[in-house]
Amino acid sequence: MNLLFLGDVVGRTGRESVCEYSLYLREKLELDFLVVNGENASNGAGITRNHADILLNNGVDCLTLGDHAFDQKDMISHIESSNKIVRPLNFSRKSPGVGYRIFKTRKGESILVTQVLGRVFMNRSFDDPFSAMDNLLMKYRIGQNIDCIIVDIHAEATSEKMAMGHYLDGRVSLVVGTHTHVPTSDAQILSKGSGYITDAGMCGDYDSVIGMEKQEPINRFTTGIPKGRFVPSAGKATLAGVLIKINKDGKLEEIKSIKFGGKIGVEFSDFDMHK
To answer: From residue 268, how far is each of 20, 57, 272 by CA, in Å?
Structure first.
């Protein structure tokens, strides 16, 4: 089974690039499933119902969210009716939506997608993500009653993400970090067969400060005073993520960090999975 996970979509340029190339990538990479983190798709903070629907109608199979899950207020009601959007598992149980969903590929393979929020440097209190995953995995086991489990850990601290990767090694197919918008170079198969990457990166303009126009972040760092709002950068987007091949036991045969187009990516036509 071939699966592609794309990191945080930032603003219009990220949305449009995902929509433009998702069907092409599905064909070129022979994808069975495409997961996208939509956390910053609408003006850089959360995702609206309309933007979620546009992504899901253009080749995306599942959207994960993050700490900005409900910044766009219409998502509060929309997530209750959508069966393709996953909010963090360790949100309050009273939060709308669900923290995991199970999907079927066209070949009949079952894929569980879940997301947890880290707690280090996140400025909000969430339930323990490790205990949340333990509780979920008491019910689902790769190679037994589920073919694949994808875990999006949306967190600030690299150490917390790495700890989660090793903690879940052998129990899930992939632990993929999101939130920091900078792709890391540590894509690997861990000792018990799970895939791991600290951060998938973002789908957005890399001639920016983590997807935002440069001047306001620079102002805040140099003066300590907010002078305006953060605005998503509008340059050509790079699509960043991780491509995996999953065996019949739900563990990985291959993992590869990918970057397509824009400032830091290869041209789509030049990508080779085996290089």
So the answer is: 12, 21, 9
pTM of the predicted protein model: 0.95
Query: Choosing from 68, 154, 179, 181, which is the catalytic residue?
Result: 68
Q: What is the pLDDT of residue 109?
A: 96
Contact 194, 252 (CB under 8 A): yes
Stretches where the chain sits below pLDDT 70 are 268-275
Domains (range + CATH), the chain: 2-270 (3.60.21.10)
Q: What is the pLDDT of residue 98?
A: 95
pLDDT value of residue 258 = 94
Cβ proximity of 189 and 252 under 8 Å: yes
Count of beta carbons in the 10 Å neighbourhood of residue 231: 14
The yes-or-no answer on residue 68 being catalytic is: yes
Mean pLDDT across the chain: 93
Q: How high is the pLDDT of residue 126?
A: 84
Q: Can you give the three-state secondary structure of the chain, one letter per residue? A: CEEEEECEEEHHHHHHHHHHHHHHHHHHCCCCEEEEECCECCCCCCCCHHHHHHHHCCCCCEEECCCCCCCCCHHHHHHHHCCCEECCCCCCCCCCCCCEEEEECCCCCEEEEEEEECCCCCCCCCCCHHHHHHHHHCCCCECCCECEEEEEEECCCHHHHHHHHHHHCCCCCEEEEECCCCCCCCCEECCCCCEEECCCCEEECCCCECCECCHHHHHHHHHCCCCCCCCECCCCCEEEEEEEEECCCCCEEEEEEEEECCCCCECHHHCCCCC
Burial readout 70-108 (b: 16 or more C-beta within 10 A, e: otherwise): bbbeebeebbeebebbbbbbbbeeeeebebbbebebeee
